[in-house]
Amino acid sequence: MAHDFDLFVIGGGSAGVRMARIAAGHGARVAVAEERFWGGTCVNVGCVPKKIMVNAAEYGMWAEDATAFGWDMTVHGHDWAKLAAARDSEVTRLSGIYGRLLAGAGVTSFDARATFIDAHTLDVGGQRVTAERIAIAVGGRATKLDIPGAEHGLISDDLFTLKALPKRVAVLGAGYIALEFAGLLHGLGAQVEVFHRSPQVLRGFDQDVRIAATEAMQAQGIRMEGGVNATRIAKVPGGLVLQLSNNGMREVDAVFFCTGRVPNTQGLGLDRAGVTVTPGGAIPVDDEHATNQSHIFAVGDVTDRLNLTPMATAVGHALADTLFGNNPRRASYENVATAVFTSPPIATVGLTEEQAAARGPTDVYVTRFTPMRHTISKREGRRTLMKLVVDQASQRVLGAHMVGEDAAEIMQGIGIAVVMGATKQDFDRTIGIHPTAAEEFVTLRTRTRVAGVQ
Question: For residue 107, what are the domain limits?
Fold first, then answer.
């Protein structure tokens, strides 16, 4: 009982709350401090409110498409304030659940900022608290480019406090947040242009996916321009002027910086605890998620390893079991399924074709088709891509990739198969559900190409 708590968690997001709750369930004395909002980025200014807004954009599309199926419908426009109220109500409800979960588990909660005084001592809103073990789960934060006039631009968090839909929007970035924001804003009625310095979007994704995603967005009327940087933002009567490195200029109502996130470690006092950080602010950890101080751990986006909410939650749970539950285990970073909620959505699990080919001969199966719904609606930009990446020697499916409606829902099941080590023959002997798009994953018979052969 030398310390106030057995475990103190800094950060009340998904990872921190899960770790605290599970550790308390194992009998540990646990506390959590959260300075901003319970549930973290995902619940408050990330996954949840974003997905609600993606849903809103899709309803408009479906209403328009319904006429092709015989429905007499007219879309009169979108009520931004009504959507915002419904979204914020749901966010408030979910954020409150996190607090109640902690209270129910017997965890002590602090609505305050926690910073290190030394390796076992924290300043929690002016109160001195000690802990035998400390977990850092403070997540990340959005950044802006260092250009003149950056103060006139918005970060991703700002989408959820806008009072009205900006009619002309420039989105800067090529990652999943940039594409998601471009898609939902366009779907809600904005004119959207995406500018990115890289030649292609979605670095790290499969090449076929990157191409298909760009084609889909362009077909819907979203302008995509690669190989260009933003150089200045100027405020003018009636809006903003965005200057570009190719000497281009755009008059817009809003500029969104979707150009990256950084670990939220600034000002935590990590130096006073002797915790090492990278030049970018991330906290290096070992396989047990321990920092260079063996009793201090870091989980989630603050480690800058695989910045996904379910991954962070799984790591927090496994670490609590290891430290307090007499059940040493790790959450695997391999074959983690993920999705990009563009329109249509993107989902992937396992290796890209490029990654698999670097390991050796790889069989590649690809199909592209128009889903049944849109053979009737005739809507542009809704073609589906499905792809399997297969190790030629073992026939194990190393990766699955999809661009198309319901991609995220479909990929969750495919992810189970990939994690279990399913082979292409396992897919082949699985009977498809007809008529669905998902059945294409188990009816891919003709090899498209072989990759990785020298």
Answer: 5-142+262-324
Q: Cβ neighbours of residue 207 under 8 Å, at least 6 residues apart?
A: 352, 353, 354
Residues 320 and 342 in one domain: no
The distance from CA 166 to its chain's CA centroid, rounded to whole angstroms, is 23
Residues 273 and 317 in one domain: yes
Please give the positions annotated as active site: 434
Greatest CA separation found in the chain?
73
The pair of three-digit structure tokens given for residue 44, joined into one six-digit string: 């408050």
238 CB neighbour count, 10 Å cutoff? 7
Residue 61 to residue 373: CA distance in whole angstroms:
12
Query: What is the tens place of the pLDDT at every residue in 42-99?
Result: 999 999 999 999 999 999 999 999 999 999 988 889 999 999 999 999 999 999 999 9
CB 209 within 8 Å of CB 353: no
pLDDT the model gives residue 74: 87
pTM exceeds 0.90, yes or no: yes
Distance from C-alpha of 140 to C-alpha of 276, rounded to nearest angstrom: 17
Asked whether residue 378 carries a pLDDT value surpassing 70, the answer given is yes
